[in-house]
Amino acid sequence: MALRNALLAALADRESSGYDLAKKFRSSVANFWTATPQQLYRELEKMEAEGLLSARLVKQDKRPDKRLFSVTGEGRAALLAFSRRSPKPTTVRDELLVQVEALAHGDVASVRASIVEHREASRSRLKGYEQRLRDILGDRTDDEFLATGNRLGPYLTLQRGISFERENIAWAELALGVLARRYPL
Amino acid sequence: MALRNALLAALADRESSGYDLAKKFRSSVANFWTATPQQLYRELEKMEAEGLLSARLVKQDKRPDKRLFSVTGEGRAALLAFSRRSPKPTTVRDELLVQVEALAHGDVASVRASIVEHREASRSRLKGYEQRLRDILGDRTDDEFLATGNRLGPYLTLQRGISFERENIAWAELALGVLARRYPL
DNA sequence: ATTGCATAGTAAAGAAAGTGACTATGGGCC
DNA sequence: GGCCCATAGTCACTTTCTTTACTATGCAAT
């Protein structure tokens, strides 16, 4: 009931295929909503059946045909209605932090390795977000963009993604420092 | 397959009832893992059936009887095995950010109100975490605690919760500032 | 006297999500 | 020629989660 809205939000800007959306969910939407490609394809079918989306088949020469989805009037109405509802509280699922919580009952060396992995993944996502931010800004400063730009929503969610990843990295450094001190190699 | 580990982590420290766990998941574990009471009761049953937990009935005078769960040897082994697995990537579900992403297609006044609500909820959780941190530290400084304390895991996850909520608040301020500028009341 | 809150749970349907395998085309690499 | 990668999906199965609605007890406030 909520993935739909993330899809409507993504499709409201541009017509896309399931494949395009899967990439977008992997690279940027994952910041605030995660979904697997299978989920997307399933949900897109349902939404088309319910009249929120319309689809058109595009034949391609050099690659497989694709279906491009776009938001219908009904879909736009649903998105507007969603924007008026009070959003559910954020939910987080972070297995690494479960491991850290149980540090005293687990394998410290292994958890330490997981923290390092996690930090590297955050660094890599952070780079992607920063690149994307530069793309949105173009040659404008943040301030010029905020005064006149027309992709405020994506700008704001991107900022949240950036600060989240920065905090992930800072936290990982803290945790590794603590572990180095208490559990020397 | 993963909620169990969060439960094992919570129970490894102290024997608890389902009700206790529900409170803990609401107030602190929610930082890195969310679960409803119904999920917990169901999972606890399964885990007891599989031998990861043992339960004992405690009769109470002034309130309903309760069942206290504790981790068995098998449960400890499962937790150790979990700590050695590579954790799945963090997943986030944040409806507010979906609304913000679709700002241009939604009701800005309503989204603004949601951001304010969200900020207040973060402030309140932040206060709770800071209190909990003071409880863990007692009269020690962070540094003394890190040198000798014995609840390092909870300390670290709490730090992550605190920085997360601080960033939520800072982001909300940013977003409200941007909206005030672009969509004056 | 009743309402509301905290404690302590249970039941069961239905929606959503995750997992793994599979089909197909074309391009580039070695 | 064989292999992997990117594109563009589909299918089936299973697990997990959410939602809604229940049962009970005792305390405190109005």
TrEMBL record, chains A, B:
Tell me which SUPFAM superfamilies the record gives.
Winged helix' DNA-binding domain
Give all residue intervals belonging to the Transcription regulator PadR N-terminal domain.
7-79
Q: Which residues form a coiled coil?
A: none
* Stretches that traverse the bilayer: none
Provide the species name: Actinoplanes flavus
Protein name as catalogued: PadR family transcriptional regulator
Which residue intervals define the domain Transcription regulator PadR C-terminal in the entry?
Answer: 92-179
Q: What is the lineage of its organism?
A: Bacteria, Bacillati, Actinomycetota, Actinomycetes, Micromonosporales
